[in-house]
Every structure is written in structure tokens, then in C-alpha cells.
Amino acid sequence: MYDERHMDYVFVDVRTDEEYNAGHIPGAIHIPHDEMEERASELESRKGEDILLICRSGRRSVIAANILADQGFSRLFNLKGGMLEWNGPVEK
């Protein structure tokens, strides 16, 4: 369930370009899960922050979290149920 506390997270959307463009959480950083290994450095400056990974249902975000954990990220969270369960603001 959405509330303003969610805004304390760095949102990272790991869905495909098509899914992201169809609607995403405002301000979310978009790095598709299958590009995470190559692009994790884009999140390096946010390493000490709480990072909330988002996909459609929660599976791909777990894969992305594992990749980031292997690269030393420790404050990782998965949006349970993904965008299917998100009831906060969405932009296109």
C-alpha cells in the first residue's frame, strides 16, 4: 500500500523499456534487469541509500537485487507484488 514513506527510497524499475514506458513510478531510475550487471555502476552514488527494486510482479526485481548484492549493495528492497500491486502515482 502506498504512503509518503515510500518516497524515502530510490526507486529502480527493472522492467523492459515497453513496460516502463507504459507507466512507471515518478522519478524511478530505469535499468532493465537483464542490463543490471553492466549498468549497476549507474547506482554507485546511491549505494548507501535504500533502493527499492520494481518489476511487474516481483520476480525480476529479485534477480536484479541479487546482482546488486553481489556488487556490494546492501540496502535493497523488493516491491512485493511489483507494479501489479502498486497503488501510488504512475506517470508515462
From TrEMBL:
Residues annotated as domain Rhodanese: 5-92
Domain of life: Bacteria
GO molecular function per UniProt: thiosulfate-cyanide sulfurtransferase activity
Matching CDD domains: RHOD
InterPro entries, alphabetized: GlpE_sulfurtransferase, Rhodanese-like_dom, Rhodanese-like_dom_sf, Thiosulphate_STrfase_CS
Transferase among keywords: yes
Signal peptide: none
Keywords: Transferase
Record's protein name: Sulfurtransferase
Species this chain originates from: Paludifilum halophilum
